[in-house]
């Protein structure tokens, strides 16, 4: 089935999210949609999938104009979407999830689970998925859960498949398997729209690449284009994609974590006997598939853990376990949280206010209980310039900035203090390649100043680029600690829980 998006325009008030975008995807083609965060990719796909109605333009399937009133109409027309965050019911079986919303019944209104099982087995055998239709979804690895999403779409005879950032929660091996599945689907005649920001994946699997910037198509690129060429098209300028760092020069300071355990209110152990040391002047990257205890580990380091924390966290000999968040920050700990909108910023506050959120209890910004507005504004003005924060002014609400610029506000706030430790959780999540370049440089500069740095990242390329050593977590435990030049396939196996030979003892 041929897909054509013709002059699609979508506005939200004065914001033009999609500006007369035209794209054609032929049957048996993988067409990659590439663009920085906020470029309009997701809005365009929501129009295609019936979640939004375009203000102008048309969606055509096999040259027939479509009028979708919702996702049900899109699915009925042959469009399927594999979402970044799986749309599965964890306690249902594979067959039950596949038939959900498209239930077949027997006499008496009973669900025909046999038909659902047969459909799962048929599709799984065609594509070599090896999925048990009676397995409960929550018991399956994320790579298998993603295959279930694909089976769901194919069970409704989808001829156009949208893959929206599909590798976000996959190990490298699972990502390679997904690329193979996409090629199989292409050979079967499906038209595939592949949305991603990972340049390596684009060049590996795409037949054609359309680049979107600020809501408009800026051109098409070839899969043979270099990463630098693709990045420049996305951002509109040359981008340095390689992290420049020398060998670590160790400083006397250190972070020592010993036997750390985090238990939630139900008694489940989320961080299980984790031990490691980070020396001043080095970056230790905590890697792993999202949901394996990394979030709880970083929360424990800065006193935010919601459950019970046992073990020891010593910064230059000072015990941090049992200290308040304020007490830990006052020890010189900088924290870049993984969710900036929830934990890092107050959207309604101005840029200037957000830049001193954790510094309103002491000089220089507060004296004798009075906020020093002049000093705050001078600091904010310098930070906006130094960290290249694109804003209309320091009084602009931070919630009105782009995702990348919001992240720069968080980074500027945390790196403008005298630090003894930096903890950065997913520091480049949801930001464009230009902002990634800048944030990486600032993290390395902090490391080169002799500060111990802990970075949590699910992006393997980032882990390898930033880290001096890489600690891999799986189900709350340390699988091993390895040098940053460890081969990707070894790191991928470790992310799946398989230890590598020669790793440091946890």
From TrEMBL:
InterPro entries: AAA+_ATPase (IPR003593), ABC_carbohydrate_import_ATPase (IPR050107), ABC_transporter-like_ATP-bd (IPR003439), ABC_transporter-like_CS (IPR017871), P-loop_NTPase (IPR027417). It comes from Actinotalea fermentans. Pfam families: ABC_tran (PF00005). Residues 3-239, 255-500 form the ABC transporter domain. It comes from the Bacteria. It is found in: Cell membrane. PROSITE patterns: ABC_TRANSPORTER_1, ABC_TRANSPORTER_2. This is ABC transporter. It is a peripheral membrane protein. GO terms for cellular component: plasma membrane. The lineage of its organism: Bacteria, Bacillati, Actinomycetota, Actinomycetes, Micrococcales. GO terms for molecular function: ATP binding; ATP hydrolysis activity. Keywords: ATP-binding, Cell membrane, Membrane, Nucleotide-binding, Repeat, Translocase, Transport. Its main location: membrane.
């Amino acid at each position: 089935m041929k897909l054509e998006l013709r002059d699609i325009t979508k506005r939200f008030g004065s914001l033009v999210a999609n500006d007369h975008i035209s794209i054609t995807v032929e049957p048996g083609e993988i067409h990659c949609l590439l663009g920085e965060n906020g470029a309009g990719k997701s809005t365009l796909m929501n129009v295609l999938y019936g979640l939004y109605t375009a203000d102008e333009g048309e969606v055509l399937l096999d040259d027939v104009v479509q009028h979708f009133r919702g996702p049900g109409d899109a699915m009925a027309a042959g469009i399927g979407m594999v979402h970044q965050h799986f749309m599965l019911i964890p306690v249902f079986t594979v067959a039950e999830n596949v038939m959900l919303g498209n239930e077949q019944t027997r006499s008496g209104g009973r669900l025909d689970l046999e038909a659902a099982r047969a459909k799962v087995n048929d599709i799984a055998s065609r594509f070599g998925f090896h999925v048990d239709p009676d397995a409960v979804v929550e018991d399956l690895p994320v790579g298998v859960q993603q295959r279930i999403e694909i089976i769901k779409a194919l069970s409704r005879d989808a001829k156009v498949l949208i893959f929206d950032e599909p590798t976000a929660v996959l190990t490298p091996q699972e990502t390679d398997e997904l690329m193979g599945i996409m090629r199989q689907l292409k050979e079967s005649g499906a038209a595939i729209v592949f949305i991603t920001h990972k340049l390596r994946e684009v060049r590996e699997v795409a037949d054609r690449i359309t680049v979107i910037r600020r809501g408009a198509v800026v051109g098409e690129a070839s899969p043979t284009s270099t990463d630098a060429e693709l990045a420049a098209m996305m951002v509109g300028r040359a981008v340095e994609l390689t992290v420049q760092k020398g060998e670590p020069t160790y400083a006397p300071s250190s972070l020592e974590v010993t036997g750390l355990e985090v238990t939630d209110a139900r008694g489940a152990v989320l961080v299980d006997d984790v031990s490691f040391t980070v020396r001043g002047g080095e970056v230790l990257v905590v890697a792993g598939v999202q949901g394996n205890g990394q979030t709880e580990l970083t929360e424990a380091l800065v006193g935010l853990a919601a459950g019970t924390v046992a073990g020891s966290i010593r910064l230059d000999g000072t015990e941090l376990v049992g200290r308040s968040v304020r007490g830990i920050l006052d020890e010189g700990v900088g924290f870049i949280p993984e969710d900036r909108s929830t934990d890092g910023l107050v959207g309604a506050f101005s840029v200037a206010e957000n830049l001193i959120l954790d510094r309103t209890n002491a000089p220089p910004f507060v004296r004798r209980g009075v906020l020093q507005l002049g000093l705050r504004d001078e600091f904010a003005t310098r930070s906006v310039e130094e960290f290249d924060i694109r804003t209309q002014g320091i009084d602009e609400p931070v919630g009105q900035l782009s995702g990348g610029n919001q992240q720069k506000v968080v980074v500027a706030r945390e790196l403008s203090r005298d630090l003894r430790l930096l903890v950065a959780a997913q520091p480049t999540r949801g930001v464009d390649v230009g902002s990634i370049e800048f944030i990486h440089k600032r993290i390395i500069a902090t490391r080169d100043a002799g500060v111990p740095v802990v970075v949590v990242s699910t992006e393997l390329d980032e882990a390898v680029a930033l880290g001096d050593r890489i600690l891999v977590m799986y189900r709350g435990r340390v699988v091993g600690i390895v040098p940053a030049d460890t081969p990707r396939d070894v790191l991928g196996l470790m992310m799946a829980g398989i230890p590598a030979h020669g790793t440091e003892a946890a």
